[in-house]
């Protein structure tokens, strides 16, 4: 039995409506290149490939895109991370901080450096989306159980319709990936797919 369902969790769909904006969370080399301690997880690489496919269509239809990476000047200005690789390598001058070229178009995307899990926390992404008239925010990136979950909740709290394409996000392990998507899908967002978002973009921007 699904007691959450019996108590009405997930009973109301959000749906995509109005103009779409896409956030791309932390598809930086630290997570996408296997030579780094956090890099190259299979679910993350699947998410990277599907996000690249989604973004190609989004740019053709003038969809606002905000992408981010996480980096710090020194350990002094970073939060109290419990992840050793973050403390050791997530520095502004470290090559692992660079955005993966598969998802980044420097002539199109708005780029922010974030200091916490959410792309919206103390960054200009919300004002940018408001200026662009965005009503629906699509969340892509990694990791599902950390920065994707945090960004999803912040998007919800800012009043955006929030969509998480399952195949555009990834994590180190499948269990946390599935568990967190199931939970945000009960409460804050619709869990969708790259193909569904692409179809909406094409239909809504004719």
Comma- or semicolon-separated keywords:
206 residues, hydrolase, Rossmann fold, Hydrolase, Isochorismatase-like_sf
Describe the 3D structure:
The protein has 206 residues and is of the alpha/beta class. The chain has one domain (16-204): Isochorismatase-like (Rossmann fold, 3-Layer(aba) Sandwich), CATH 3.40.50. Helices cover 39% and strands 18% of the residues. The chain contains 8 helices and 7 strands; from the N terminus they run αβααβαβαβαββαβα. Strands 1, 2, 3, 4, 5, 6 and 7 form a 7-stranded parallel β-sheet that branches. Helix 6 links the parallel strand 4 (134-142) and strand 5. Helix 3 (42-60) runs parallel beside helix 8 (194-204) and helix 6 (144-157) packs parallel to helix 7. The longest helix has 19 residues, at 42-60. The protein is globular. The termini are far apart. The model has no long low-confidence stretch (mean pLDDT 97). Residues 22-195 form the Isochorismatase-like domain. This is Hydrolase.
């Amino acid at each position: 039995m699904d007691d959450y369902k019996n108590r009405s969790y997930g009973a109301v769909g959000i749906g995509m409506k109005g103009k779409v904006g896409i956030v791309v969370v932390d598809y930086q080399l630290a997570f996408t290149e296997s030579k780094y301690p956090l890099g190259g997880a299979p679910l993350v690489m699947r998410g990277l490939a599907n996000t690249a496919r989604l973004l190609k269509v989004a740019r053709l239809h003038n969809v606002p895109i905000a992408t981010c990476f996480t980096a710090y000047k020194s350990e002094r200005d970073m939060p109290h991370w419990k992840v050793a690789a973050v403390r050791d390598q997530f520095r502004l001058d470290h090559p692992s901080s660079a955005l993966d070229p598969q998802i980044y178009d420097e002539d199109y995307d708005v780029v922010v450096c974030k200091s916490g899990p959410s792309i919206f926390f103390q960054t200009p992404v919300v004002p940018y989306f408001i200026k662009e008239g965005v009503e629906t925010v699509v969340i892509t990136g990694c990791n599902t159980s950390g920065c994707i979950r945090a960004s999803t909740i912040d998007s919800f709290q800012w009043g955006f319709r929030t969509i998480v394409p399952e195949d555009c996000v990834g994590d180190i392990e499948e269990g946390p990936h599935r568990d967190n998507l199931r939970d945000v899908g009960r409460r804050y967002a619709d869990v969708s797919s790259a193909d569904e978002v692409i179809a909406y973009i094409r239909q809504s921007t004719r």
